[in-house]
Amino acid sequence: MFKRIFQLFKIARKLSTSGAVETLNQIHPLPLPISLFFSLFAAGSMPNPLDNQKSPGEKLCTALEGMGTTFIKLGQFLATRPDIIGEEMALNLEKLQDKVPAFDVYEAKKIIKNEIGDAQYKNILEISEPIAAASIAQVHIARIKNENENKEVAIKILRPDIEKLFNEELDALMLFAYIIENSFSKAKRLKLVEVVHLLREITNIEMDLRFEAAAANELYENTRNDVGFNVPKIYWNYTTKKVLTLDKVNGISIRVF
């Protein structure tokens, strides 16, 4: 319990100094005790003058992006629930990007070796620096030996300790949601406890790359003989809960259209 309370205080500081609470207060005025609680944690922080030029939704996106994985995922989840936060705010939160700094390739190699074992790791001939990094995982290009052939693959690797960090912050958010719902009757309609619970379920599945591999493999098997389809193959002997290896495929990002 003490660990959850300490984590809750850290989150309160993040929410206060990021501008997220101020933005939420503009959209839906918070009860006075909650406003005072967060004001204490905001002491000494300086607002960004550039934020004055943004809409409340844009400011909330910026704040959540700056607070890390848990809050990026929370914002992305809320973007799918206009019934809770309203259509306009949901549209704004759809713009959330989970691009974050990559972790070191040395750390990536260590995770891969621990996951697939020394013998299998020796069949990885080379591995690149990260080519993409998001809040939960990052991607490297590699060459591997598979059934006496050299294959160019993409390897997706979970961030170190991401599951522990995420669940610790969600434990604190669950405590906060429970306190709010039981202290203010009007807050019950926001279903805060339900939101945090669903976010935990969804993201814990996302943090087990075997689920993603299984879905991708099913698509591969269903389309392997179809003309015009090129679906990446999953390499199961290089895939675990924390590592996903599949064919590298060249393409054009849908974002350019």
Structural class: alpha+beta
Q: Which percent range fits the helix content?
A: 40-55%
* SSE ordering: HHHHHHHHHEEEEHHHE
Quaternary structure type:
single chain
Shape estimate: elongated
The gyration radius over C-alpha positions equals: 21 Å
Architecture of the largest domain in CATH? 2-Layer Sandwich
Give a verbal description of the structure.
The chain is α+β, with helices and mostly antiparallel strands and 257 residues long. The protein has 2 domains: 2-97, no CATH class; 105-161 and 206-256, Phosphorylase Kinase, domain 1, CATH 3.30.200.20. It has 12 helices and 5 strands. Strands 1, 2, 3, 4 and 5 form a 5-stranded antiparallel sheet that branches. A hairpin with a 2-residue loop joins strand 3 (137-146) and strand 4. The longest helix has 22 residues, at 162-183. It is elongated and about 70 Å long. The N and C termini lie far apart (49 Å).
